[in-house]
Amino acid sequence: MIPDYFNDLTEQVEIGVWNVFGTTPSEIKKNIEAIKEWLPTQPHLPGKLTDKQIRAFLMMGRGSVENAKPKIDMYFTMRSLFPDIFDDSHPFSKRILNVNDYIYLIPLPKLLPDYSRVVIMKLKETEKDPYALDPGAAFCQLINMVDVRFFEDLCARHIIIADLKHCQVAHCTKLSPSLIRRCYTVCQKAYTTSSSGIHIINAPRFFDQVIIMIKSILSPKLAKKIHLHKDYESVLDSIDKNILPIEYGGTEKSLDELEGRF
């Protein structure tokens, strides 16, 4: 990722984000020091984390030291609990690079006025074999993207837009309830962040059944945040045009350009 990808992280934005969580940048600095003092007492955890890394866990914990501690613990513990997910998850491994041929996973550079970050997840139009898309690898790449965001980004919550215009039945053949359950556990325990909603647009008719399966596994609270839209105008019309890529009628760079920068 180029250094200035998230180009609006000003001091005022930092104040605004932490204000959403009922705290201040100066209080967060104190909380970062408190976690630094706590880390050496946990021999199973890395002895040192950078200030940005600790800040990320405080974001997940809504600014609270006590909420952030279990997030740090589970972040590192999950990697040993789910080796099938995290083994071979390096961004430049063949398994993960293959995902990039099928899916855009892109956080948009500019924040919404309420300090939310929009994330675009879109299946690409490609002639590659749809059966070769590994949903487990796709989840790993999503986690890689989230890791970069956690340590470089600052936002109060996120909005996910999943564009399934090019989704085929073949893309979903390996999407088992067991995999969904394991991925959900990882997200719930180690990557809990505030979300305004997951908006699915351009979904083919068969995907209704996939959504029913997914919602049956998720908590009722999270399941209610998944919205299936018949058209995307109702979702995108509420987002400033300068934030959206040109593919969605905005003035931001194209998805290909943003993918290259991120």
Automatic annotation (TrEMBL):
<dbReference type="GO" id="GO:1902936">
    <property type="term" value="F:phosphatidylinositol bisphosphate binding"/>
</dbReference>
<feature type="domain" description="CRAL-TRIO">
    <location>
        <begin position="113"/>
        <end position="256"/>
    </location>
</feature>
<dbReference type="InterPro" id="IPR036865">
    <property type="entry name" value="CRAL-TRIO_dom_sf"/>
</dbReference>
<dbReference type="GO" id="GO:0016020">
    <property type="term" value="C:membrane"/>
</dbReference>
<dbReference type="InterPro" id="IPR001251">
    <property type="entry name" value="CRAL-TRIO_dom"/>
</dbReference>
<protein>
    <submittedName>
        <fullName>Alpha-tocopherol transfer protein-like</fullName>
    </submittedName>
</protein>
<dbReference type="Pfam" id="PF00650">
    <property type="entry name" value="CRAL_TRIO"/>
</dbReference>
<dbReference type="InterPro" id="IPR036273">
    <property type="entry name" value="CRAL/TRIO_N_dom_sf"/>
</dbReference>
